[in-house]
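can u do me a favor
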């Protein structure tokens, strides 16, 4: 597992405390969005399509810290937009570290090298730079709609690791992703020295310009992640619940926990989750107590939820399952100790995929010819 014991202990004691107090609904990670503007315009992003007057706005530092205190979650994810554009990002990180919150600062890393060289941040067990990396160079640059971004992020990661910072990667996979390339990307990130990797299928944001690339069927998601996550190398480390990864592979069935990762941004507390915008309320108590939670999740029949398998809704379910009983704890321990998931059928499917065209040109509908070749399944 790519998570330090101190963080695992903090999360475990927090979840157990919530269960002992018989709290049915509780937050696990606060999604704190201090701004929406970004220095990239990714085709699959649903967060930067606001008008200019909205993109210019920032949450005040005081509102950010008040939301953290109000929510009480042990972990805070700072997405965006691009958080390194936030005017008070240093002060926000310092305030969260002082509160002993585990921070995932989600960045495309275009500004990270500059900020690290300027001494904006100090290494801490509470601070992790979560770098947006959607695969190998060609695939990542295509996903973010700019050439050279992978190389810049690669160098920023190298610098951060060398300076002693915790670094993880977050990877969103879309329809048509090349599973062999994703596995090679995992090798690249392990060679670079990242602490762990996070993966998730993309969510079909209504505002995202590129609607055709989202995984629109759960079967496709299961198929893709089964190829990628079966027959794993021992050196691969994931900064995620192993039960959530089994869920992506189709080995477990979970229902969404939309309140697990509540979202706060310039509009207030977002209903019901990070992905769906069905209105806002002023207080965290209103969000938890007055939202019609039964109207969300796959079992509700809500069309917006039917194909979603994104980590912000389902990883809280997996974490809660781990600490609910031995029925969740023992499989988690087993998955941590025996994580290879050997599967000959998936080996065969990977070889088949190696003979098929993938990549940006295929995504654009350009026909290319490929020569069949064997894709070796690397030794664990």
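np, heres the sequence
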């Amino acid at each position: 597992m790519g998570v330090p014991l101190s963080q695992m202990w903090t999360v475990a004691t927090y979840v157990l405390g919530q269960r002992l107090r018989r709290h049915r609904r509780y937050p696990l990670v606060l999604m704190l969005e201090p701004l929406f503007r970004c220095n990239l315009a990714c085709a699959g992003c649903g967060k930067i399509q606001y008008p200019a007057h909205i993109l210019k706005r920032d949450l005040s530092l005081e509102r950010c810290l008040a939301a953290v205190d109000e929510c009480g979650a042990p972990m805070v994810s700072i997405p965006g937009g691009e958080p390194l554009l936030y005017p008070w990002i240093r002060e926000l990180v310092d305030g969260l570290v002082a509160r002993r919150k585990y921070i995932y600062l989600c960045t495309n890393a275009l500004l990270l090298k500059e900020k690290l060289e300027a001494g904006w941040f100090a290494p801490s067990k509470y601070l992790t730079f979560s770098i947006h990396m959607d695969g190998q160079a060609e695939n990542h640059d295509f996903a973010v709609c700019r050439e050279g971004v992978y190389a810049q992020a690669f160098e920023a990661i190298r610098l951060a690791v060398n300076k002693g910072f915790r670094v993880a990667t977050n990877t969103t996979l879309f329809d048509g992703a090349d599973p062999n390339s994703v596995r090679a990307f995992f090798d690249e990130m392990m060679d670079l020295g990242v602490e762990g990797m996070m993966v998730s299928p993309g969510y079909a944001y209504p505002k995202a310009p590129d609607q055709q690339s989202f995984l629109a069927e759960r079967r496709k998601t299961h198929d893709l992640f089964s190829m990628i996550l079966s027959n794993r190398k021992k050196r691969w480390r994931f900064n995620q619940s192993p039960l959530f990864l089994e869920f992506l592979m189709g080995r477990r069935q979970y229902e969404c926990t939309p309140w697990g990762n509540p979202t706060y941004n310039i509009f207030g507390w977002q209903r019901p989750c990070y992905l769906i915008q069905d209105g806002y309320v002023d207080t965290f108590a209103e969000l938890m107590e007055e939202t019609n939670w039964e109207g969300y999740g796959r079992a509700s029949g809500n069309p917006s939820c039917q194909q979603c398998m994104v980590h912000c809704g389902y990883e809280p379910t997996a974490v809660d399952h781990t600490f609910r009983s031995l029925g969740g704890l023992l499989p988690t321990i087993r998955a941590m100790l025996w994580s290879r998931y050997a599967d000959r059928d998936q080996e065969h499917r990977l070889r088949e995929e190696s003979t098929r065209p993938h990549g940006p040109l295929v995504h654009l509908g350009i026909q290319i010819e490929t020569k069949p070749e064997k894709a070796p399944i690397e030794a664990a």
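Residues 5-20 form the longest helix (16 residues). hope that helps!!
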